[in-house]
Fold this protein.
Amino acid sequence: MAEVIQQRSSFIAETSYDHDTNELEVTFTDGKTFAATVPRAAYTSFITAPSRGKAWHQMLKDRYDWEEQ
């Protein structure tokens, strides 16, 4: 079952993480959504970071194979 979190970010609108498949979906404020398989530890670090936008760029953007949904 996916965990959906509305984000308080000027860059990221919402995230959804499926703990069974490790699929993370990130929806940006421009309406685009991208998905990738991301380890649970990386997801946890991302959602607990003080800035989701900075965390996206530093921890996720170039490290996983993102597909636009």
